[in-house]
Amino acid sequence: MTTQPCQTGCGTPLTPDQERILRERGTEYPGSSPLNHEKRAGSYHCVGCGALLFRSTTKYESGSGWPSFWAAEAGGVATQRDTSHGMVRDEVHCAHCGGHLGHVFPDGPPPTGQRYCVNGLVLDFRPDA
Ligand SMILES: [Zn+2]
What are the GO BP annotations of this UniProt entry (predicted)? Predict the structure, then answer.
């Protein structure tokens, strides 16, 4: 696997773990992301292409061990039915570059009832100025 340069303008190459999640639908270890505890106002972007995916206003503590959101930015993500690992889930990926982000489950809080369970490693958090 080749390491592609980060296209968000940060100049930092994606790490092997980020590549594994984005391109091979990998999953980070639960509880491992510092973004689990990120409470600041800001926006969450795709590390693969820089697209806006989520905002801090929809982030909540799900207790799952992964950063969780009850809604995604309109047009930011797309979903696809995923029947791997003997489960029926809806896979979530970046609508712009197709990079895998995580899964969405129908057990989230109001108003949407959805839980976007996202790997923090593929989120680029940009705090509001
Ligand atoms: Zn992307």
Answer: protein repair; response to oxidative stress
